[in-house]
Design a protein that fits this description.
The complex is a heterodimer of chains A (202) and B (240).
Chain A lengths: L12 H9 L3 H23 L2 H17 L11 H19 L3 H10 L5 H8 L7 H16 L2 H11 L5 H8 L3 H18 L10
Helix pairs in contact in A: 1-2, 2-3, 2-4, 3-4, 6-7, 8-10, 9-10
Chain B lengths: L2 H6 L1 H5 L5 H11 L3 H16 L13 H10 L11 H25 L2 H18 L5 E6 L6 E7 L4 E7 L8 E9 L2 E8 L7 E6 L8 E8 L12 E7 L2
Antiparallel strand pairs in B: 1-2, 1-8, 2-3, 3-6, 4-5, 4-7, 7-8
Helix pairs in contact in B: 6-7
Classes of the chains: A mainly alpha (202), B alpha+beta (240).
């Protein structure tokens, strides 16, 4: 995920989080300006309701603010940390509302027309931020290039919060098939996204 | 399980798609298998990038202000892992305080009071040591006074422990508020003992859920709505 690759003059995300731990609200504002859209888009993809997505993001940034001191750079980027907090909050809320089943159905119905292709239209919206757009396009394209069965099991796990057995039941496929697809899909993504992964830069 | 079968679990683990029992077994394996740890680490980086595959959505106006406004009311924790220890320490001191109350009452010699005190203690302990209890640390600016709340949603009760708060002056009282969606709801009035401490239980309306709790000083008897800024405030979090 795009993190500290915005040029030498930009304050690294890590430094913002350190300032947050010291109680600096402006650092929190800066972090929101950088990653708020990613968090909101992710929350909306999981929860599928704008009002819920807003709650989730407010909660997630609140949690990041309170727990800034516990961020460990050794465990991944700041953006990844925020994405993990946001996704966890979003899945908690969806589960609490018992709405997972429906979200799941819709995700499963979008045969060959899942998140990756919705992304194509969204990437052309005028208000996107250029630098994010680059990474997003690559991720969306890589996901879109996976064979549909592999893409679907990954989307159901990541955005739907389903376990492998739940995915197998949902798709009426043997568990072994789901396992194989998930593994193959993730390994392909690792190859096609190498440029965005730590140590895999151009 | 063969090595091959273990390595199959790295991708679903990185995506959070293992059932709880499977996840526990795999985590035990990870503790002793560097190859699987490496695979998990690298696939986790891939999983994190999937957030970028979410269709880009335009941020709601006002969300930034809201986040900053809420942050202003809460001080970041010194360490994200710290709450566990103060929680246990506060719970232990609470049990001790209630225990002392029991001894004190027994010396007064009335069986009825002993039984009442025991029932009260059992109830306090049950409220505090429940798996679903949520807790809030109420602080000023890191200095005394402070308070800790234990909210047991299934029993609709809050136990509050207050520290280093001088008793309210004559004609005044302290009032505890639950802030539900920005709106304060009174949970009750209280006062501390001469030593600045108090342990008290209060009822919570069954349908009320709230994110913040706050304490203000009010005219005796309390107010329908806060008449001043809270001097103690804190966010409610699961105790884990």
């Amino acid at each position: 995920m795009l993190d500290d690759q915005q040029g030498p003059l930009r304050t690294p995300d890590r430094a913002l989080v350190e300032r947050m731990a010291g109680g600096d609200e402006r650092a929190l504002g800066d972090l929101y300006d950088r990653h708020g859209e990613m968090a909101y888009s992710l929350a909306l993809a999981v929860a599928r309701e704008r009002a819920d997505a807003e709650e989730i993001v407010a909660d997630a940034f609140g949690q990041a603010w309170r727990n800034a001191a516990s961020y460990d750079p050794g465990r991944g980027s700041v953006a990844g940390w925020l994405a993990t907090i946001t996704r966890t909050r979003a899945l908690d809320l969806v589960r609490a509302r018992g709405r997972r089943a429906r979200a799941m159905e819709r995700a499963a119905q979008t045969d060959g027309d899942g998140l990756a292709s919705t992304m194509g239209a969204a990437a052309d919206s005028p208000d996107r931020r250029i630098e994010r757009g680059e990474a997003r396009r690559l991720v969306a394209r890589s996901l879109g290039e996976l064979p549909d069965p592999q893409r679907r099991v990954i989307e159901l796990a990541y955005f739907g919060g389903l376990s492998q057995s739940e995915i197998a039941a949902e798709l009426r496929e043997p568990l072994g098939t789901v396992k194989t697809r998930m593994r193959a899909g993730m390994q392909k993504l690792r190859g096609s996204l190498a440029a965005l992964l730590p140590g895999g830069g151009p | 399980m063969t090595d091959h079968q273990w390595s199959e679990l790295a991708a679903p683990y990185a995506l959070g798609a293992l059932a709880p029992d499977e996840r526990e077994r795999f985590e035990a394996h990870l503790a002793e298998c560097a190859a699987c740890r490496g695979e998990v680490h690298s696939l986790r980086e891939v999983a994190v990038l999937l957030a970028d595959a979410a269709p880009a959505a335009t941020l709601p106006s006002g969300l930034r202000d809201r986040i900053l406004r809420e942050a202003r009311q809460i001080r970041p924790l010194r360490s994200g892992r710290a709450p566990v220890i103060p929680w246990l320490a506060a719970a232990a001191s609470l049990v001790l305080a209630v225990g002392l109350g029991y001894v004190y009452v027994r010396e007064r010699g009335t069986l009825q009071r002993v039984n009442a005190a025991l029932a009260e203690r059992d109830s306090l302990i049950a409220t505090v040591f429940s798996p679903d209890v949520v807790t809030a640390a109420l602080t000023a600016t890191g200095k005394p006074p402070s308070a800790r709340l234990y909210w047991n949603p299934s029993r609709h009760r809050i136990v509050m422990a207050v520290f280093q708060l001088p008793p309210a002056s004559t004609g005044r009282t302290y009032q505890l508020w639950a802030i539900a969606q920005g709106k304060p709801v009174s949970l009750g009035v209280f006062n501390t003992a001469a030593d600045g401490r108090l342990t008290a239980a209060m009822a919570v309306p069954p349908d009320l859920t709230f994110e913040l709790a706050a304490v203000t000083e009010e005219p005796a008897g309390g107010s329908p709505a806060p008449t001043q800024q809270p001097f103690l405030i804190g966010k409610v979090t699961p105790a884990d």
